[in-house]
Write a structure and sequence with these properties.
Belongs to the cytochrome c oxidase subunit 2 family. The protein has 7 helices and 11 strands. With about 300 residues, the chain is of the alpha+beta class. The strands form 2 sheets. The protein has a 6-stranded mixed beta sheet with strand order 8-5-1-2-3-11. Helix 2 runs antiparallel to helix 3. The C terminus is likely disordered.
Length: about 300
Amino acid sequence: MTSSKALRWFTSLYMLVLMLLITTGCTENIIVLNPKGPIAEQQRDLMLISTLLCSVVIVPVLILTAIIIWRYRDKKGRKAKYTPNWEHSTKLEAIWWGIPILIILTLAVITVQATYALEPSKPIESDKEPVTIQVTSLDWKWLFQYPDQGIATVNEIKLPKDVPIRFEITADSPMNSFWIPQLGGQMYAMSGMAMTLYLQADELGTYWGSGANYTGKDFAKMYFNVEATTQEEFEQWVNEIKAASPKLTLEGYKQLAEPSASEILSFSAFPEGLFEMTVTKYASSHNHGLSWKDIQKIQIEE
């Protein structure tokens, strides 16, 4: 009996220590809690505030549960007060209903405000012009087109620090989800649609990006690096690609779109309107009846 009791105490202590290590561990190792941009910072703060508010209810309930189980356990010589006719307490009812209601209302207000503030297509306030990157999800790779710079890459993004990035996202494959955890939340890539996502990197460095939707055999290989550089380094990188990389032709794109994994590639040019053609070919097949100009007009009106 003594060894069994000791084992229970050891197990309880172990679980408590494990929970403390998990909840108080260094957030540097959890990339969604280590933001490197303004959007990710606001999303991190929303997660932490929501967790703390929920803990106001969850932690006392867990503690009281342990106390009640221990105090009212079946044992000889128990001194806990026995009140079989007790059935109601207005004070207690007010506490265990009032506090959760206040927390839910607070969470509702915070969530609504954050939802509007973090609207993905809302431009980031900046005195710098945004850089546009057109993202196309393929099987099983990512194609990134820089329409203003006239270059394209596969499974690699470079962007200047402290400059808003306007991602235009679509798919020429099954639906996927474009995600750079340290810069912001994920955005679905869907055929026949052009989704808009604004992000920004505030620090120099290399960040991990990935597809966040299961899309088949080589889904696990759909990851890419995002390197935030200085403006000068970004322009130098663009010039190097223009000088040394081949052009992406329409036939080359059709081969690239075939289901297969890919290493990092770069192209000094790509067919004009390639992204728009990818969007509208599926829009037509879905009977959306929208041209690329129609899509842009709707986005502006929204």
